[in-house]
From TrEMBL:
Keywords, comma-separated and alphabetical: Hydrolase, Metal-binding, Zinc
MF annotations from Gene Ontology: cytidine deaminase activity; identical protein binding; zinc ion binding
Pfam families in alphabetical order: dCMP_cyt_deam_1
InterPro entries from the UniProt entry: APOBEC/CMP_deaminase_Zn-bd, CMP_dCMP_dom, Cyt/Deoxycyt_deaminase, Cyt_deam_tetra, Cytidine_deaminase-like
Annotated function: This enzyme scavenges exogenous and endogenous cytidine and 2'-deoxycytidine for UMP synthesis.
Cofactor dependency: Zn(2+)
Enzyme Commission number, as recorded: 3.5.4.5
Protein's UniProt name: Cytidine deaminase
Tagged with keyword Zinc: yes
Length: 136
């Protein structure tokens, strides 16, 4: 599974986006350490805030199958430049991804920005902050 394949999987996932409100489909493909790819799309709701982004759909699919070791994430949308994940997704990425896990932000024009959780959410609030407060 190389970068191009993972990006292609994110485009396939995007085809299942449920976006009657925004009409802005997003796809994500999360590569697990065992080689399995978890695909996610955005899923909207008439009650707008219930919407789940593509990135979180993919992460939650994997975690709900007991998978928590990941190797890379690709995200795609029809944006002018590479798609920019929302704050909620960045926080969820910080929970499950090592700080240097490769994140490929892409668009339908084929632009690819390779980044990391560390760069996407510097200073993320994490488990370590809770542990420091003596909750271990
Ligand atoms: O990185 C992103 C950015 C936006 N969205 C979704 C949320 C909503 O359904 C639509 C418009 O914000 O795009 C994602 O899934 N991922
Ligand atoms: Zn999001």
């Amino acid at each position: 599974m190389n970068k191009e394949q993972l990006i292609n999987d994110s485009k396939q996932a995007r085809e299942n986006a449920y976006v009657p409100y925004s009409k802005f489909p997003v796809g994500a493909a999360l590569l697990a350490a065992d080689g399995t790819v978890y695909k996610g799309c955005n899923i909207e709701n008439a009650a707008y805030p219930m919407t789940n982004c593509a990135e979180r759909t993919a992460i939650f699919k994997a975690v709900s199958e007991g998978v928590k070791n990941f190797s890379a994430l690709a995200v795609v949308a029809d944006t002018e430049g590479p798609v920019s994940p929302c704050g909620a997704c960045r926080q969820v990425m910080a929970e499950f991804f090592p700080a240097d896990l490769p994140v490929y932000l892409t668009n339908m024009a084929g632009e690819v920005q390779e980044t990391t959780v560390r760069a996407l959410l510097p200073g993320a609030f994490t488990m370590e902050d809770l542990n420091h407060a003596g909750r271990k």
